[in-house]
Structure formats: C-alpha cells, structure tokens
Sequence to fold (247 residues):
Amino acid sequence: MLIIYKFSEIRVPLVPKLSKCIYNGRLEIWPSKDWELESIHCFEVLEMVREHISTVIGLRADSSVTDNWATTEIRHIDLGRVYAASILYGYFLKSASLRHRLEQFLGLPLTDKDNNLGQMPSFQFPEIKARLKNLVGCVGNKQFDSVGQESRRQESNVDTFRHYVMRFDPETLKMCAKLRTKEAAHLIEKHSCALFGNEKTGKLETDGLILTSFSSLKRLVLEAVAFGSFLWDIEEYVNNVYNLKDS
Fold:
C-alpha cells in the first residue's frame, strides 16, 4: 500500500492487468506518464534508466514520435521478465546511488579495486551484469555557454556515477543488487503475477505474442524501475517497524 501511495504522489496509476489494456488485439497503455515516472530520479540515475530502456526495448532517448508509436511483437513471458528485471534494476540503482552519495559526503576516494571499465566481476545477476556492460558510453562535447556548462557538469556526474558502479567489486555489486528481505522478493512475485498472470490460474502466462507500441513498452519499463526504487525506500521504512525477514 505504501508503494501505491508513492505512485499516487506523482499522480501515476499502476498499470492494471494487461488483459484489460488490450484493444482490438493490441496492447496500449495510456496516458504514458513518462515525465512523472522520470521525475523521481536524479539526473545521473535518470540517464542510466534511459540507457536501460534503450538496451532492453531498443528505444533511444532521442527517438521521434513516429518511433515511439511504431509497433512490435513481444512474447508474453519475455515482457514479464523485462518488467521483473527492471524492478530489480531500479532497486539496484537506488541502492548504488545512495551509497555513492554517502561516499561522496564522507570524502572517500574512488578506487579501481582491481577492476577496470572493460571487465565486470562475476556475480549472480546476469541480467544486470549484461546491462551494465552496455551502459558504458562516451560523453559528447557541448557548447561553451552557461547552459552548456551546466550540461557538462550534469554529464560529468553521470559519467562519474557510471564509473563508480562499473568499478564495484563482486561483493559490493551483490550487496547492492540483492533484495534485502524475503517480503520484498514475495511482493515482486505477487505483483508480477497480478500484472501478467492468467486470470483463472493466477500463474504467469508463458505463451502468446503481444502486439504493442514502443511507447507502451517504455511505460511498463519506467513503471517497473520506479517500483524498484520505491521498494528500496519502503522496505527500509517498514523494516524499522515490523522487522522483515532477511533474504
């Protein structure tokens, strides 16, 4: 309920069961609420979220309106996996960004810890590992004016945060990516089943193709990332009252 409340604060209703969003054989989620869902992230995290979207659904941040409304087909089970992985990614980014801010506040130096940007440590989250490898990019040059200087400062923060995440040792990476409580893992499973599950059995659908637009896919991914970010906050809050079970 607290997570639903967090969504209500930014005036974003959670997507209902997908079967209720299919019109004339096509899945459409409207309104998109992209701006509201992006507004919860700081600039450096938002850039990584956008790169995540580009990686998992192939939609660039600078895509045109025509690109956004182009249609594609995706397997029902694959869409469910993308949604669940994006929840975990949002959870991971929230954990990593808070850790980054704390270390900056304490003035701790950024170290390589025996890793470099081309070598990711081996750990138990292959989806996030593959995604992080794709998130390394170059920062383009900007015009030398006041707006451009602010852009360079923000992009420098993005680059710094990206480098910070890429330099995690295996133990730190696992600690930031792992769900801290059993209740959080159970909540993700129940929410995914409610969204993607069969109405009669309640189990996740495994068959069938879904025709949808890239705009609707983006909406689902942004919601999932926000869900993961909110979950991190709420899990900490509830744990102070109810002593949740460690995962």
User: Anything to note?
Assistant: The radius of gyration is 19 Å.
